[in-house]
Amino acid sequence: MNLLTQDTIVALATPNGTGAIGVIRLSGPDALAIANSVFKGKNLTKQPSHTIHFGTITDGDLVLDEVLASLFIAPRSYTRENVVEISCHGSNYIIQSIIKLLIRHGARSAKPGEFTLRAFLNGQFDLSQAEAVADLIASDSKASQQVALQQLRGGYSTELQTLREQLVHFASMIELELDFAEEDVEFANRGQLKQLIHDLTRVIGKLIQSFELGNAVKQGINTVIAGRPNAGKSTLLNALLNEDRAIVSHIAGTTRDTIEETLNINGINFRLIDTAGIREATDAIEQIGVQKTMEKISQSALLLYVFDAETIHPDELQQDINDLYKPGIPALIVANKIDLSPGYLEKFKPHLPEGSTLIAISAKEKLHIDELKQLIYDQTIQGKLNGNETLVTNIRHLEALQKTEQALIKTLQGIDHQVTSDFLAMDIKQALHYLGEITGAVTTDDLLDNIFSKFCIGK
Ligand SMILES: Nc1nc2c(ncn2[C@@H]2O[C@H](COP(=O)(O)OP(=O)(O)OP(=O)(O)O)[C@@H](O)[C@H]2O)c(=O)[nH]1
Ligand SMILES: [Mg+2]
């Protein structure tokens, strides 16, 4: 990726396909001149920033469309370059014709994420904020939108930046010691350095820990519905979604493959996974289904174990719990079909694991479904998300944080073992390098390429 591009790029900023309007974005030094060369109306190169102008786009004598041109003059634009946004009618034909025309007049097709890349390179925001732009566009629940917005507004990069600057200060003091190596002086107070590293590792440790929840919020929380055939798992999926998504029948073994759907509870997306009933499989396909169920449980954040309260024997319940419980994965025990057997729950209680939560519902009659939803939320999210904490959602940041942590631990060990300044300086530099990767203070072309190529074209 050539980072010193001085050309003007163009792309459709709105989704592909037919819409009421389409917005074509031009950015670069010649954005105004190129737009002006195909625009009939006012002279766009002579207008002030942040103004909108009505006119036509013409290709020679041929009028392509009536449009509005919005002008953002550098540096007061998203990319901090000259930007023109042409709002035209949302016909795919018109949009493609205008883009081709602009390319003929000197613009170049933008690559994925190139507008945001330019914004980053021109100092509009740091790298983690640029990445948050992509997350914000992809956000599909209140929680994922909030987390992305928080990161876009600075999030933890501000906090890390401050700590990084202090570490830079120490690094330079230690470098200074190297210059006076013969005189055996210490410019960098080791006690203060240790304190700073402790502060840093505490902040970083917290961020690393937040990834589990952050990632769940971003991707949706995997919630597996499992149990014996005919327990009512698919009926429960349908009741939670409030639609007839899965086939339900009295025949045991109805669901063979897993079915996944998203359910939003209190702003969090849960990925509900209905599975094949667990039993001794009677054929090869069912066998695969059962294996898949076990796999899904081990990848889930919450298990909804459903049983038929009318027919199950307590020993069978015990057996299921032994088979399905995985350490570290919280589980809710859901007694179904209480419309048929109200009040029989007491007999199950002695067979349940300590601290487990039992809820009685009727999936078919939609009894206690809202209480179950609240429990699903409570088991996974409650108390962990209060709206303004910083969550790491990006795997690249997680890896950089883990590497920073390791380098800091090495630095601490170095101080304790009274290693010479040059070794200490090396470890601190390592830590600074990884910290810098998060905010983009340290970048390589490959890294940028990797990040921005995942954006959509036009962003
Ligand atoms: N009375 C009553 N019947 C229910 C309830 N929930 C499910 N059923 C019935 O139980 C039978 C099995 O329901 P399913 O939802 O297909 O069960 P499943 O656990 O998905 O079964 P498999 O896919 O075969 O593993 C159907 O006839 C449902 O109508 C309930 O709460 N009350
Ligand atoms: Mg089913």
UniProtKB/TrEMBL annotation:
Cofactors (names): K(+)
Record-level Gene Ontology MF annotations: GTP binding; GTPase activity; identical protein binding; metal ion binding
UniProt-annotated binding residues for Mg(2+): S234, T255
Domain named TrmE-type G: residues: 220-381
Any one GO BP annotation for this protein: tRNA wobble uridine modification
This protein's UniProt keywords: Cytoplasm, GTP-binding, Hydrolase, Magnesium, Metal-binding, Nucleotide-binding, Potassium, tRNA processing
Annotated residues for binding of K(+): N230, S249, I251, T254
EC number: 3.6.-.-
One GO cellular component term noted in the UniProt record for this chain: cytosol
Localization terms from the record: Cytoplasm
Annotated transmembrane regions: none
Main subcellular localisation: cytoplasm
Entry note: cofactor: Binds 1 potassium ion per subunit.
EC class (word): hydrolase
Binding site for GTP: 230-235, 249-255, 274-277
Subunit: Homodimer. Heterotetramer of two MnmE and two MnmG subunits.
HAMAP family: GTPase_MnmE (MF_00379)
NCBIfam families xrefs: mnmE_trmE_thdF (TIGR00450), PRK05291.1-3 (NF003661), small_GTP (TIGR00231)
Role according to the record: Exhibits a very high intrinsic GTPase hydrolysis rate. Involved in the addition of a carboxymethylaminomethyl (cmnm) group at the wobble position (U34) of certain tRNAs, forming tRNA-cmnm(5)s(2)U34.
Family assignment from sequence similarity: Belongs to the TRAFAC class TrmE-Era-EngA-EngB-Septin-like GTPase superfamily. TrmE GTPase family.
Protein name: tRNA modification GTPase MnmE
Organism: Mucilaginibacter galii
Gene designation per UniProt: mnmE
